[in-house]
Amino acid sequence: MENSEINELFKQGRYKEVIDYFSESSVRTPDEYNLLALSYYSLGLFKEARNALKNGISIFPDDKDILFNLIEILYEQAEHEEAEKYLAMALKIEPENYVYYDILATILLRQEQNEEALSAATNALKFAPADVSRQLVEEYSDIWQEFKSESKRFSNFRRARNILLVGSAYNYSYSFRKFIEKGWNLYVLKTPTWVSFQTNYRILEDVGAKIIAQEDMEDFLDDFGSELDVIVRTGYFYGGNDLYRMTCGLTDVDQIDTFFKVVTLSRMKNPKVKVVLAFDGDSFFSDDRWNDWFRKRIDVCDYILFDTNNLANYFITRVIDKGSSQSSKVKVMRVEMPCSSDVMVHFYDTM
Which of 2, 57, 226, 292 has the highest CB neighbour count under 10 A? Predict the structure, then answer.
């Protein structure tokens, strides 16, 4: 019988015929081991399904599908100790598979291994797609609460932190990787920008960021706004340059306006979220219209960053009201291409 015929029997729900076929013919490939196991499973023969998959993994130890199906069945049948054994194998092959971390977190929580459970949950959130991440946050809320109530026991514990970047962060992408390496989750709200900057979103995704489409912004903040620790916008500012608006159809005002809207919505969920507005060297504050526009909005910022003292002082002179305490928010650091010490020191020290 050809493989296509066996597959057809399975699709038609003729599971016993599939099992009968393999009782007379040897199982030779990973696909055939999976087909046999799933046929047993569909008939409620769970022990036989597990044994078929274990036989398969002994011959094909790196096969992802056999491992996945075996772990799922073991977990479903509450064979947790054995499931953990195969989870360890699977994570060596797929170290960024969030499903395995999710299963491991649930098993460990049931075993009251709370610290280990939280570590697994943090990795699940780190590697999950953005939409799944939001679901997992709700699922793991009990874990967070349990840790909060045991603060004395786990005094050094800190949950995974979350940073939302608004825009593409030109020439900044690999610096944000430092946050990911330190256990942060990086989300990026994709806003309209010039064509030459579009590749930055791909670069950010490559270093581990989760990209949020602008049309999903409100849903994301509804589900996840309370979990954000830092919101950042960095890049150029050409003001409301009408020439750019005429030729490109947009300006940096559009992106920064989105940033302020995001901050407003997020602060409703988490008033303690830190807000950072950063400008690199190619920024201009010569238009009084847009300076007034900024003046009315920068109240929400905790930090306003610039590349140089000259630009910072120019901003203070042109935008901030004389004698206002807002000037204390203005800091100078490498905005366009910071080194790792800048990234970690300036943000961690203020949290």
Answer: 57
Residue 111 CA, chain-centre distance (Å), reads 27
Any idea what DSSP says for residue 313? H
Burial of 230 (0-12, 13-18, 19+ CB in 10 A): buried
End-to-end CA distance of the chain: 65
pTM: 0.54
Same fold across 3-149 and 162-348: no
| Residue corresponding to tokens 């064979």 | 79
Contact criterion met (CB below 8 Å) for 315 and 329? no
The residue among 139 and 109 whose pLDDT is bigger is 109
Domain ranges of the chain: 3-149, 162-348
Question: Do residues 47 and 30 lie in contact, with contact meaning Cβ atoms separated by under 8 Å?
Answer: no
Give the CATH class of 162-348. alpha beta
List pLDDT tens digits, range 228-266. 999 999 877 776 554 454 455 555 677 888 899 999 999
In eight-state DSSP terms, residue 239 is T
Indicate the DSSP class of residue 197: G
Joined together, the tokens standing for residue 308 give 């140089």
Cα gap 253→255, rounded to integer Å: 5
Instruction: Kindly indicate the confidence band of residue 344, based on its pLDDT and cuts at 50, 70 and 90.
Output: very low
pLDDT of 168-227, one tens digit each?
A: 765 666 677 777 877 788 899 988 765 556 777 888 888 788 888 888 888 888 888 888
- Give the H or E element holding residue 162: strand 162-166
Tell me the Cα Rg of the chain: 26
| Contact present, 221 and 231 (Cβ < 8 Å) | no
Residue 279 near residue 305, CB atoms below 8 Å: yes
**CATH level 3 topology of 3-149:** 1.25.40
Pairwise CA distance, residues 341 & 196, whole Å: 28
Place of tokens 């699977």: 90
Whether residue 207 contacts residue 173, with contact meaning beta carbons closer than 8 Å, is answered with: yes
- DSSP 3-state assignment of 185? strand
